[in-house]
Amino acid sequence: MGKKDIADRSFFADRERFAELINQHLYQGEQIVLPLNLERKEIRYPSLTSSGGEMSRDILMEDMSRRIRYGLEIETESDYSMPERVMTYDSCEYEQQIKEIHRAHLDRKEYTGYRENKSRMKKSDFLYPTVTVVLYLGEGHWRGRKRLSDLFQITDRDRNLLERNLQDYAFPLIEADFVNYEDYKTDLKDFFQAMQYRQDRAKLRQMFLSENFANLRPETEQVIAAHLQVKQLIQKMRKEELPMCRAFNELMKEERQNGRQEGRREGKREEKSSIVRRMIQEGMAEELIIKIAECTREELAVLTGR
Question: pTM of the predicted model, to two decimals?
Answer without folding.
Answer: 0.74
